[in-house]
Amino acid sequence: MPVMSIDIPDIILESHRQANESLQDGIQRGLVIWEYLNGRLSLRECGELLHIGYRGFLELLWSRGIPIDGLSATEFDQQLSSLRTLLDQS
Description:
Elements: H1 10-18, H2 23-37, H3 43-49, H4 53-63, H5 73-89
């Protein structure tokens, strides 16, 4: 994976310190979400890149208040299948 050097404003560094969150993890999550929102990555690819899986990425988006209304037909079917599996286990 390529490595890049960037300048980070102090206010961003401080917000990550206060949230007790790794700056590197926050930047990586933010970049992956950005690429998803711009249609460059699928939900599944995002989950794999962040090592949280498809459902984990959906939950991350939901926790940030990001709507999931741009699902492709395949992604919608996968999500529906996952929900049915959860309901069948209840």
